[in-house]
Design brief:
The complex is a heterodimer of chains A (264) and B (333). Chain A has 11 helices and no strands. Chain A has 264 residues and is an all-alpha fold. Chain A starts with 9 loop residues before the first helix and ends with a helix. The mean pLDDT of chain A is 91. Chain B has 2 domains: 220 residues, Rossmann fold, CATH 3.40.50; 66 residues, Lrp/AsnC effector binding domain/regulation of amino acid metabolism (RAM) domain (Alpha-Beta Plaits). Helix content of chain B is 36%, strand content 25%. Chain B starts with 6 loop residues before the first strand and ends in a 12-residue tail after the last helix.
Chain lengths: 264, 333
């Protein structure tokens, strides 16, 4: 047998759990491919079908492709909810969670580790969406530095939605329940300013809903980097809303983990 | 804190809503022994293991494991125990070696310790060649062996095995018995093993605790428990099958008749083997010739029957068919 063990540092635990999360992600094409392909597919449909929207007076850009490019970033992040939540729910369902609970693993290291796989997919998505958009003719008004900020905001949003997934997975222990969130997330996405700027939405109720819908501010933050250049207010709101969702969801996930991890 | 490899439980209770899964268990497991916790499905075995391994807080009572209190010192308990739960919970997407890396890393072992110790353990359980295959391709026996190796990666002083051989073939079961026996008797690891197999408890355990409907109904070495029952069984086969009723009549003078099949007769002897000579004289006197005569020592199933009023086999079938609720280990969340 091996030498006696001790309790490893939090970052060491998180590193091992993150490593597992990445390995699992890489070995499941079903986790990687749909979040890459479906958003691009919808982008192609939107960009070709709604291009006439650029003729609306005061539309902020002449390229609907550039306008719509933020949509796949946001849609991809919604997949993060599903991925993170399903993984943890499966661990609970098949008993692997108990295996982890019997080690000195701490709760925060589990949450960080689980989110790492989500961030890996988020990085791949951001690179693929940006490359596809640029290849199709869109340009990035904020330049190379803007691309880095776009990545940062995109990953912040993925982390926020991943934390929602962790909460749902830990609270319910059911991957089916987590997947049930998916349509709700899409409704939030479509009731936002994803398709039109808020001030150009003619329907009062829709404009009101889009205004109170936090997803609008996430999309507008992403979009500002693509079509406007540097818009401090849009970026502050984008990062701020992402951070707020992340903090609230992580707090809820931590509480759910504490209830789930009833070890003495 | 007392440094001990033993386990001591006092008044351990676990209530799930209306079900009292464990109902006031007191037990003591001595350092370095194999303690067999025997009972049918739903008896409370796994719930007891979950409490002793800190996964589930008891509703009442307490216990010390390895000298540490399960309620106030859970982290210390987890440091000194290795656990293989009822279902070998493994990640189908990871290889055997990757499982060792994850488990060792979370226990704070260095990469060198994980590599050396992990390889040695994989070899010991016969998984060296399969170490780099994903666990999803493993057979049930291979998963059980990997589960055991994972439970040992951090050199625990106590090992909890929850029905480790359920579903295994005879060969895999024997190999696992050898390994567990060696761990206890060669390496001094205390083993708490739950099982619903009489022969497993009999062959492997130094002492056995019999649990029935959440209560410990008997405890002792297999030999001592069987000695409590005391009375052996005598089974005879008549040379002439038409004499089976006369054979039964003679044997019934010496004990309680037992149900048998295939043309033989059997009794539980009232006064033990000392009566054998009288039995032979009685058969001779009645002109009953026998083709075979065997004396069976009491089994743990006889002990279970004496303590609970039913055989373990029967209780297991009832649990399997749902006549009694199958044990559930629930999270209160």
């Amino acid at each position: 047998m091996t030498a006696a063990a001790g309790t490893p540092a939090l970052r060491t635990q998180a590193r091992y759990l993150a490593w597992r999360s990445v390995i699992r992600t890489i070995r499941q094409p079903i986790v990687i491919v749909p979040p890459l392909v479906f958003p691009l597919f919808l982008l192609a449909i939107n960009a070709s079908g709604l291009s006439a929207a650029t003729n609306i007076p005061d539309f902020p850009t002449s390229s609907y492709l550039a306008f719509a490019l933020a949509f796949p970033f946001m849609q991809g992040s919604i997949f993060a909810t599903n991925t993170a939540g399903t993984n943890i729910a499966e661990d609970i369902g098949n008993g692997f969670f108990n295996r982890l609970a019997l080690t000195p693993m701490s709760g925060p290291s589990l949450l960080v580790g689980q989110l790492t796989g989500v961030l890996l997919i988020g990085t791949l998505q951001a690179a693929a969406f940006l490359a596809a958009g640029l290849a199709a003719g869109a340009s990035l008004e904020s330049g190379v530095l803007g691309a880095l900020v776009l990545f940062a905001l995109s990953l912040s949003i993925a982390a926020a939605f991943g934390a929602i997934g962790l909460f749902a997975g830990l609270r319910t222990g059911s991957s089916e329940a987590v997947q049930g969130l998916f349509p709700l997330m899409f409704i939030l996405l479509f009731l936002s300013s994803a398709s039109l700027p808020r001030d150009l939405i003619s329907s009062d109720w829709f404009r009101t809903v889009a205004t109170i819908n936090p997803v609008s501010y996430l999309i507008e933050g992403l979009r500002s980097l693509i079509i406007m250049g540097w818009d401090a207010e849009a970026l502050a709101l984008g990062f701020g809303v992402a951070a707020a969702i992340f903090v609230v969801a992580l707090w809820a996930a931590t509480r759910a983990l504490r209830d789930r991890l009833v070890r003495t | 804190m007392e440094a001990s490899n033993g386990i001591r439980a006092e008044g351990l209770v676990r209530q799930f809503k209306n079900v009292r899964a464990v109902d006031g268990i007191d037990l003591e497991v001595r350092p370095g022994e194999i303690y067999g916790f025997l009972g049918p499905n739903g008896a409370g075995k796994s719930t007891t293991v979950h409490m002793l391994t800190t996964l589930l807080p008891p509703t009442e009572g307490t216990a010390t494991v390895g000298g540490y209190d399960i309620l106030s010192d859970g982290a210390a308990v987890r440091d000194v125990i290795g656990v293989a739960l009822q279902d070998a919970a493994l990640d189908q997407l990871l290889t055997g070696r990757e499982h060792m890396k994850l488990q060792g890393g979370l226990h704070g072992l260095s990469p060198e310790e994980i590599a050396d110790g992990g390889d040695a353990l994989l070899e010991r359980v016969g998984l060296s060649e399969a170490a780099d295959r994903r666990v999803g391709t493993y057979s049930g026996g291979m998963k059980r062996r990997l589960d055991l190796a994972l439970a040992l990666i951090h050199s625990p002083r106590l090992l909890f095995l929850d029905e480790p051989t359920t579903g295994l073939d005879v060969q895999s079961r024997a190999a696992l018995w050898d390994e567990v026996s060696g761990l206890a008797h060669r390496d001094g690891v205390t083993v708490f093993l739950t099982t619903q197999y009489l022969e497993e408890a009999d062959a492997l355990a130094d002492r056995v605790g019999i649990i029935h409907q959440g209560k410990l109904v008997a405890e002792g070495t297999p030999a001592a428990l069987k000695a409590q029952i005391g009375r052996p069984t005598l089974e005879a086969v008549p040379a002439d099958p038409s004499q089976v009723e006369r054979l039964e009549a003679v044997l019934s003078r010496f004990g309680d008749p037992l149900p048998v099949t295939n043309g033989s007769a059997a009794v539980r002897l009232s006064d033990g083997t000392e009566e054998l000579a009288d039995v032979v004289r009685g058969l001779d006197g009645e002109g009953v010739k026998v083709a075979d005569l065997q004396v069976h020592a009491p089994t743990l199933d006889d002990v279970f029957l004496a303590k609970t009023g039913r055989s373990l086999e029967g209780a297991r079938e009832e649990a399997d068919t749902g006549e009694h609720p199958t044990e559930q280990v629930e999270s209160p969340a």
